[in-house]
């Protein structure tokens, strides 16, 4: 009679555990569905990719760093391309525009493969159910790893070259190696640097002197300062320079004229020397003709002297004496009239 209550208690306990297990199972399903947003209203969109890089069903879809959906289906299409269909929450639909693009990326360097939606302008319309996204290219993990491997090879080659360079320098090879190992070269370099330092000091002193000289030029009362500030002096100096320029031009013209005259004289002299048939050429080159001309001149001089004697004799001849006396009186009267006119001119 006492075993019946025990059996009922056991059944009650089993029933409670079953109910509790079902409740836990339903709560887990609801929790997982909430985390994966299984029960959220979504629209379907898709993209056709060349390579999905390990993308699977259930992979996340991200937009601006926020999860907005999951991958639903992956199917092959023509030309070895892959069609990826994914859901997008209706709550996020209005923020995703039709000019946005998708690409396959990873959650971190070695994380899970995901779909990333990016871009889009505010002027474009929002995506609709069944919309096909355009695809943008992104390097895959394999390509990134390959790039890292290439960079490692380049880094190893650079390290090897650097080691060889250090070894050469330690061995005294090259300019740097010789500078570090040869004392005489270091001494010469040190001397050169000392000379450069001295030249720098001299350059600074020269600069200071030029600055002082410029300051002195700007001091009032200085000739250069007066020349730069006094417009009257500047005008006079400019006029003087213009006059000197005009004088120089006249001198150049005179020199050119003299050169032309000398050239003409030289040409005339050459013609005279070359043309022996001309009058001057005959006189210069023909001695007989020159002697004849000399005789003619002597005869003319002798005839002129005789003519003077004849005129003197005519003056004393009684037939012409009256004529010459009257002529002399007329000449003296003309001289007297001329002298009177000169003395009558008021001073």
Key attributes of the depicted protein:
eight-stranded mixed sheet, 347 residues, 10 helices, alpha/beta
Protein described:
The protein has an eight-stranded mixed beta sheet with strand order 7-1-4-3-2-6-5-8. It has 347 residues and is α/β, with parallel strands linked by helices. The protein has a domain at 32-138. The mean pLDDT is 78. Strand 2 (60-63) and strand 3 form a beta hairpin. The chain contains ten helices and eight strands. Helix 4 (174-181) packs across helix 5 and helix 8 (279-285) packs across helix 9 (287-316).
Topology:
Blueprint: H1 3-35, E1 42-49, E2 60-63, E3 66-77, E4 81-89, H2 90-93, E5 101-106, E6 113-118, E7 131-132, E8 134-135, H3 141-170, H4 174-181, H5 183-217, H6 223-229, H7 231-274, H8 279-285, H9 287-316, H10 321-344
Parallel strand pairs: 1-7, 2-6, 5-8
Antiparallel strand pairs: 1-4, 2-3, 3-4, 5-6
Helix pairs in contact: 4-5, 8-9
Strand order of the biggest β-sheet? 7-1-4-3-2-6-5-8
Average pLDDT confidence is 78
Strand content: 5-15%
Cα shape: elongated
Whole-number radius of gyration? Answer: 64 Å
Sketch the topology as an H/E string, one letter per element. Answer: HEEEEHEEEEHHHHHHHH
Number of helices: 10
Total beta-strand segments: 8
- Which structural class fits the helix and strand makeup? alpha/beta
CA(first)-CA(last) distance: 189 Å
- Estimate percent helicity: 55-70%
Low-confidence stretches: none
């Amino acid at each position: 009679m006492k075993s019946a209550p025990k059996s009922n208690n056991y059944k009650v306990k089993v029933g409670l555990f079953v109910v509790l297990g079902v409740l836990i199972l339903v709560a887990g399903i609801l929790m997982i569905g909430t985390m994966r947003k299984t029960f959220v209203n979504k629209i379907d969109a898709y993209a056709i990719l060349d390579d999905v890089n390990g993308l699977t069903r259930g992979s996340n879809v991200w937009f601006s760093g926020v999860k907005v959906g999951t991958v639903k289906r992956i199917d092959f299409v023509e030309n070895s391309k892959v069609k990826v269909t994914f859901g997008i929450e209706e709550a996020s639909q209005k923020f995703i525009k039709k000019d946005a693009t998708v690409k396959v990326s990873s959650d971190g360097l070695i994380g899970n493969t995901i779909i990333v939606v990016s871009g889009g302008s505010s002027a474009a319309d929002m995506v609709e159910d069944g919309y096909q996204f355009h695809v943008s290219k992104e390097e895959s993990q394999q390509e990134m790893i390959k790039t890292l491997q290439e960079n490692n090879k380049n880094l190893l080659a650079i390290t090897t070259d650097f080691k060889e360079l250090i070894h050469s320098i330690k061995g005294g090879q090259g300019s740097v190696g010789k500078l570090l190992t040869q004392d005489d070269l270091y001494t010469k370099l040190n001397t050169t640097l000392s000379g450069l330092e001295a030249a720098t000091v001299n350059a600074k002193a020269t600069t200071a002197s030029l600055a002082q000289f410029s300051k002195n030029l700007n001091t009032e009362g200085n000739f250069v300062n007066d020349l730069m500030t006094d417009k009257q002096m500047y005008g006079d100096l400019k006029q003087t320079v213009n006059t000197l320029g005009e004088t120089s031009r006249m001198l150049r013209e005179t020199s050119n004229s003299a050169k032309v005259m000398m050239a003409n004289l030289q040409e005339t002299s050459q013609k005279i020397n070359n043309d022996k048939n001309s009058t001057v050429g005959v006189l210069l080159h023909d001695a007989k003709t020159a002697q004849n001309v000399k005789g003619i001149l002597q005869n003319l001089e002798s005839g002129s002297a005789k003519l003077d004697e004849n005129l003197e004799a005519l003056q004393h001849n009684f037939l012409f004496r009256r004529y010459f006396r009257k002529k002399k009186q007329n000449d003296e009267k003309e001289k007297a009239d001329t002298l009177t006119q000169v003395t009558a001119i008021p001073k």
